[in-house]
Amino acid sequence: MLKNRISKWTQSEDSLVRVFRNSSWLFSAKGIGAILSIFYLALLTRSLGVSGFGEFMMIVSAVQLLAAILKLQTWQAVVRFGAPYLLTGDDRAFRKLSIRSFLIELSGGILACGALWLLLPVGGTHFGWSHSMALAIMGYGAVVFLSVRSTAIGILRAQDRFGGNAAGDAIIPLVRFTGAILLFFATPTIAGFLVVWALSEFISFLFMWFLVARNRKVIAQPASSQLPVTAPSWPEFFSFLFFTNLAFLANVIRERLVVVIVGIFVGPTAAGLYRLADQLANSVNRLAEVFARPLFAELSKLFAGNESDRLTGLFWRSLRVSAVSGAVMFLALVLLGQFMIDVISGPEFLAAYPILLLLGAATIISLSGLGLEPLLQAANRAHVALIAKLAGLTALAMAMTLLLPKYGTMGVSWAMLLSAIITTILLFLFSRSAIAKPHPAA
């Protein structure tokens, strides 16, 4: 009986089962990552204190924000336009798409390095960084910018090689955990943690491309219909890249720019409390992304094959799973959040608990609409997803302008909750329209 069930699980071509099967690989890595991240977060906060942790996270957030602006994420384009090639086993076209994506991502990384070099003196003057600190920040930024991981991730996901993808993702928290332990018992400094964070990115980058190189042959995947594949035009390709990256940038602004703003206008201590709460709330979101990534790959295949019935069924089933999961996770935050903060970071961080509840609520609301943005992107409506993101971002900016001066980090947290509600409602309305009138993938 058990053997038959396992066989059905591993061989089933049901869309939702395929999503869960691919998610299971990533959940294994994310599960390890979530556990290790709690430990290295504890070491980080207890080593640097509230103010030092806040300053460290401001630096990391600023670098990642700059990367989101200039270094384009290409994995969605590789999956979106590579899925039809994989359905027909077109090895040459898929390689050409991958090379194009690699060069685009690398070019953006080089631009980001130049931008950081120009902006670093300004930050150094404002925060009083030493020369050695400035070098550590520049080194960390260069590694983040020049580690071309997104294209490799796209290749692995497009080929349903989620096991390798999971292993590459697991390397980052493993290296950070190991480095944090060494620093905790040696001399923990902000510069030292930046070196560890850079090393984790670099090792993951090398491992991802090792996995890609190990299996260069493109394997044709089964499809219900073999349709002729038309290569995307340059305007179509860059339009998709532009809109998906703007949507990604909107997410990064919500997660990273807010930390920088809180640090500048309220102070590093407030930034530390806010970021700790945000990190714990986003641990839920990171696990949710595990489900979203294979869901996007599966939706892309269904759109490529014009399988509208299976597409609609997968959409509604995934939405129900997301809503139920979100409710359970929020209840866990309410009951265990204060205890988690105390155990992980100590009593000096307990002021982050009310912030955690608001940011957790915002994260759970976003989680309830987990499959909405992947569906719009797979339906070639990335621009519509962007509209929803920008509307939520506009609401965030307006609410922060009103609430930050008077209520500080709590005001920012309420603004994040409002932004999540508006974004999710719009994504849901746009997704229903896409299901009703599907646009087949080119």
What fraction of the residues are assigned to beta strands by DSSP? under 5%
Average of the residue pLDDT scores: 80
Number of strands: 0
Helicity level: over 70%
Instruction: Report the span from N to C terminus.
Output: 43 Å
Q: What count of structural domains? A: 1
Biggest β-sheet, characterized? none
| Radius of gyration computed on alpha carbons | 21 Å
Uncertain segments of ≥5 residues (pLDDT<50)?
A: 218-225
Q: What is the structural class?
A: mainly alpha
Morphology call: globular
Order of helices and strands: HHHHHHHHHHHHHH
Number of helices: 14
Overview of the structural elements:
The chain has 14 helices and no strands. With 442 residues, it is an all-alpha fold. The chain has one domain.
Helix and strand topology:
Layout: H1 2-11, H2 15-70, H3 75-88, H4 91-127, H5 131-146, H6 150-158, H7 162-184, H8 190-214, H9 234-265, H10 268-304, H11 308-345, H12 353-368, H13 372-378, H14 382-436
Helix pairs in contact: 2-4, 2-5, 2-7, 2-9, 2-10, 2-11, 3-4, 3-6, 3-10, 4-5, 4-6, 5-8, 6-8, 7-8, 9-10, 9-14, 10-11, 10-12, 10-13, 11-12, 12-14, 13-14
